Amino acid sequence: MAEIKAPMGGKVIKISVNVGDSISEDDEVAVLEAMKMEMPILCEEDGTVAEIKVSPGQTVEAEQVLLVLK
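RESULT FIELD:
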């Protein structure tokens, strides 16, 4: 199983996928906000969303797992 991790600390603004969704490389899966800038989080490989570990409004640390793919 692959994991999508936060590249930096920040606040989760949006989750763009649901559990069970099939996603492809470079699909946007979430948006983080840090220092008043929004950063889209893109998928690095094809897969299916198995688990979403964060929710909008939640603060995350760098390298924290956001989503799990299968």
